[in-house]
Each structure stands twice: as C-alpha cells, then as structure tokens.
UniProtKB/TrEMBL annotation:
Listed Gene3D superfamilies: Periplasmic binding protein-like II (3.40.190.10)
PROSITE patterns linked to this entry: PROKAR_LIPOPROTEIN (PS51257)
Phylogenetic lineage: Bacteria, Bacillati, Actinomycetota, Actinomycetes, Propionibacteriales
GO terms under biological process: maltodextrin transmembrane transport; maltose transport
Endpoints of the signal sequence: 1-28
Keyword line: Signal, Transport
GO terms, molecular function: maltose binding
InterPro entries according to UniProt: SBP
Organism: Microlunatus antarcticus
One CC-aspect GO term: ATP-binding cassette (ABC) transporter complex, substrate-binding subunit-containing
Homology family: Belongs to the bacterial solute-binding protein 1 family.
Identification of the protein by name: Raffinose/stachyose/melibiose transport system substrate-binding protein
Amino acid sequence: MSSPRVARLVAALALPLTLVAAACAPQAANSGGGNVQPSAVSSDVASAGPVTLRFLDFEEGPDAAYIKKAIAGFEQQYPNVKIERTEQSFDQVMSTLNLRLADPNGPDVATINNGWQSMGTLSKAGLILNLDKYAELYGWRDQLSPTMLRQLEFTPDGKKMGEGSLYGTPGARLTTVGLYYNKKLLTDAGVAVPTTYAEFETALAAVKAKGETPIALGTQEKTYATNPLFALQSLLGSPKAINDFVYGSGGTTLEQTGLGTAAAKLAEWQKDGYLNPGYNGLDFDGGKKVFTDGKAAFHFDYSGALVGTGADSTKFGRVQLPQPDGGAQTSVGAASAVFGISAKTKNPDAAAAFLNYLGSQEMNDLSVQNGYLPIRPSTAQVEPGTTFADEVAGAATVTKDDGFLPFFDWSSPEMLDVIGGQVQLILAGRSTPETLVTDGQKSYDDAAAKRG
C-alpha cells in the first residue's frame, strides 16, 4: 500500500477513448516475458506529430486537481500531445488493471502499485514496458535515492523484487509514516518534543501520568490497523533485515525484521492504558479525529494526515524519530503514485515524456505549493511552524540518509490482511506477537512458493 485511499463508487466502464498515432511512432519490441522494451527511444516528442495518450489514474478530490494541473503543464510543454484522462477509484483501477493493459485499446499510461501483486504481476506478464532505456535517456536513476529506486525494480523474469530493471517511475509526491504530536498536551505534561525513541517513551509515561491519553488510533479496519505497527518496526527493527525480507534477499526471516518486537510493544502500550478508549470500534479516520480533537498526545499516520480535517496545523507537529542506536533516519515511505507504460502503446516516447514530466522539478515544486511532500528537494517556500514544515524537514532527512523502507505488506499479496488481523486480535487479548510472526511467515513462504 503506497498511500491511504478511500474508495468511492464510480462507473466501472471506462469511457471510449481514441488514439491518434504518428505513422513513424516506435513500436515496442517484445524480448520475451517481462522484458518488453522499445527497439529505440527518443526524447524528441515534438516531431511525432499529433499524439493522444490515454491515461488511467485513481486520483480524487484535491489529488485530482493536482493531476489536472500536471496534465495542463505537460500539454503546454508538448502542444502536439493530448492527454485523455480516465479517473476511477483505487480499488477499481487495481482490480481491472491487468485486463485493461492487455487490451490494445487500453490506457497508454496507468497508475500502478508497488509490490508483487501489481507491478510484479504486470512486469512478469509483459503488460508494462521495461523502462531501462528511458531511465538512461532521462537520467531517472540519478534523481532518486537508492532505497526509493529499489521499490520500482523487478528482474525481467519476475522472480525478484528490489533489483533488476525499472518498470515504473514515481510522481513528484512522497508518502511517509511518522509521529504526529499535540504541542499543548506535551507542554502540559512537562515534556519536550521527543527527538529519540527513549524520549518518546518518557513522553508517553508523562502524558499518562497527567491523566491524558498518550496515543490515538483506530483499529476497526485491518488495512490501517498496521500503521503504528509498521512505524514501530521501522524504529525497533533492522532496516537491512526489513529490506531483505520484503525484497526476498539474504534468507531473512520475518522474526529477524523486528515485527514481533513492534507487536509486543503495541501490546504493552495497550496493557499500560496508553491507547484511546474504544480504539477497536473506531475506523482509521475515527482514530485520527480523537487526535485532532485534542484528546490524545500522539498519532502515527501518513504525511498530510491533517489536510482536510479542519485542524489548526500550528497546534500540532510531526517528527521522524531516529532508531534507538542513533543510526540513520528511517521511515516507511514510497511515492504517492507510481506510473507505468503499457506494453501495447503505440507512442512509448510520448508516454515516457509524460512520466518524466510527472516526476520533474516543476512538479516537485507544484507538490509543495499544494501541500504535498516532494519526492525530491524543492525550492518552493514552506510556511514555518506548521506540521507540513515538519513533514518536509523529516522527509529531507530520510532522503539524505537514504532511509526509505518499503511497505511491509509488499512482501506477499495477503500480508496486509494477515498482519492487520493479527494486530486487531493482539490488542483484543486474543492472539500473541509470536502468532503474528508465525502467520506472517507462512503468508510469505506460500507466496514465494507460488512464484517459483
């Protein structure tokens, strides 16, 4: 899961779209399996003549407005290219993407998701282009940190994630998981904003002693019950072990990733009364509301969590805690959206130019101007003293330390459901961290066996 999405019902039938292809457009050359590449690549899109690209994405609300600005900017830069956009919900796009990309009249460019279930399946089936030639043409590999690039790579045979060829490129927005805090509640408890994990634990105890709730969360949904767990794992676990497990390298077991340690800490917090009352009956947004209403001191969430809540961002802050040993600043983080090119497109050069624009410096600056974390450093001004300023500073440190960790559920198609369900049971006193580790390892092993 790259970012939180709230699905809404829209028509499942895509609008009929047309493609005007230039007679000299380069065709994709299939080298077999997941190694579909154009025979030649060019950044000279203007000479292709009139081109229409079909674009499928799942951006809604403010995100859709941002994408529309991106399309307008691209079309201004390339007047001969028209983008015809189809927007549907995240669930609809993900559940139909394989069939759409297999259709010669399907999208030329589509939003895809990281991990085995989306990018891995699409690349292995030869439904999306191997982008290595375009990466060299546009210098994409030089623009991102190694831990971010690794999230976009698969071997052409589809057997390994986190190495090999590039099959997607990120847009200019970043999602990280961090710790939000209420400034007043910390002041009332007589503690400073924590800058280390030890200080965080001290602050939790101080807030509890003051009679306030230390941590707000809602665990009714399996998907989001994992938020605090994965955030804790990034602090208490080994970054190398987490990467090796998710990407299937090094023979690492789930137990070695620190997920069991993080689950035990969550159970300890529940026992100590650190969680808000009724958390198991609240959904993700309900838990967030407990925090924004000023009824809890801390809340683990995605970047941009306070946008649209009506909360005064000057009353809250956000921090990326370093690991207890003082090592690199790490965070579960990924591009908010990743884009791939259909292997059946008749205009791969124009499609690649569109991908290049979506991740450009211009779009990174537009991200900041619209309140999104940029995936690369931006010179756009950020209002000081706000949670957004904290988010930008935290992401910059993680980027500098090359500390991005993959979402743990990328490790198997069922991992999110398995781990989320176990978090619910552990906090209800009906399971244990040991069972979580056992069930998670089984999900991982079963998925690996199916891949061969």
